[in-house]
Amino acid sequence: MAGPWTVSRDRRNGDSGTDLRAALGRLGALRRSAPFVRQTWHRSRSAVAHVRLGSVATHWPPAVTPERPPAVTAERRPALNAERPPAVTAKGPSAGTARNPSAGTAGNPSAGGTCRPATARLSARWAIPLLALMSVAAVLIALATAHIAERAVTTSQAAARKVGGPLVIPAPRIAGAYPRRFGAITDPAVLAIVSQFRQRFEAVGTGLLADARRAAETRNPVGAGSAAGATASGNGAADRQVTAAWTSGLYGEPGHLDPATYRPSWVMYLGLDASGMLGRPSTTIARLMTGLLGPAAVVGPWRVTPGHRGGSANCTVAWLGQTSVSVCGWATDHTIGALVSPVRDTSVAELATMMIKMRFDLQRA
User: Of 314, 354, 310, which is closest to residue 333 (Cα–Cα)?
Assistant: First the structure.
């Protein structure tokens, strides 16, 4: 049955083709095997000779099964190790070459273990300088942070010691780009807030003026029985005349509407300018904010930036006229001022920023 139609895919140079039945048998065995697995047959020389061109097809076994290689025994293992090709050695004269046979081969280091110790020495050599650099960087960052904090505290103290000028009386038409609103207040809710705010502010201001007058009397007591006493009496009478000027203004916030009334938002301003010393600004502002909060206050005041006009400044949230309002105020040695606006219109943070801007126009330098 052999002829020119037979094809051999694995024949050597000069060999003839294989039997067609043998080729079909091998194709069937490949289809029955697992996918993506390449099959390999170990055929003996006699079996290969029977499938050459001109051989009888019956000499090929009916079922094409690969011959398993003999089991590797203890007797054959040395031979296999002897036939194993030499391993690929690492580059360099110290990686298992003839010059340095004790270094071992790549993937199979010698008993001395020359690869890992080299890596460990390299890591230790770089770790110590890096650790030193990180320590120096941490110290520098800590020093820089301390310097920045010290400068901030110094700036805050300098601003607190700075004494602002007298208040502008009457209140200006524009303060910090916010126009003043004139006319009577007709909204009952706004009127309740402004009335209670004015009442509490006047109560605190009156108490501060009384303390300032008593302090003036203590510094300049009235003398008697001599000309010097008469002169001291005259000067003390003059010093005891601590006068005060009150001011106020209702300012609008362009572009802001009250979400409850759909009317323009507003900020109420009250101020007091005394001719005598009212006390330390930090003590005065604490007393002012405590009076504005009222006896039923839940949240206390906190410090904010007073701005370039100096003094001390605080902000808080109060309850005036059955409405939650944002309150911010400032105090110098002879002036006090406060701003109030509903929380739904102006937050405390926004009012603190507005206070810094408005003080440029409400108070002279």
Answer: 310
Mutual angle of helices 281-293 and 188-219, in 10-degree steps: 140
Please report the DSSP string for 52-67 in residue order. STT--GGGS-SS--PP
Give rounded-to-5 percent helix, strand, coil for the chain. Answer: 40, 20, 40
**CA atoms of 43 and 69, how far apart (whole Å):** 11
Q: Are 255 and 222 in contact (CB under 8 A)?
A: no
Specify the 3-state DSSP secondary structure of 360.
helix
Residue pair 19/55 in contact by the 8 Å Cβ criterion: yes
User: Tokens at residue 176, please?
Assistant: 């910090």
Cα dist from 84 to 32, 78, 97, whole Å: 34, 10, 18
Show Cβ contacts of residue 169 under 8 Å, excluding neighbours closer than 6 positions.
Answer: 245, 247, 271, 273
pLDDT in tens, 85-107: 554 444 444 444 444 444 444 44
Q: What is the end-to-end Cα distance of the chain in Å, rounded? A: 121
Q: What is the CA 270 to chain-centroid distance, rounded?
A: 39
Give residue-wise pLDDT tens across range 188-214.
889 999 999 999 999 999 999 999 998
Q: What is the pTM of this model?
A: 0.54
Here the contacts of 180-186 (C-beta below 8 Å, separation 24 or greater) are: 180/249, 180/250, 180/251, 180/252, 181/250, 181/251, 181/252, 181/266, 185/250
Going by their DSSP bridges, the two strands 302-304 and 312-320 should be labelled as antiparallel
**What span, in angstroms and rounded, lies between the C-alpha atoms of 63 and 82?**
35
Helices (H), the chain: 20-32, 45-50, 77-83, 115-161, 188-219, 227-239, 281-293, 348-362
Domain boundaries, the chain: 1-83, 174-362
Q: Find out whether 288 and 329 touch, Cβ atoms under 8 Å.
A: yes
Least confident of 142-146, 148-152, 236-240, 243-247: 236-240
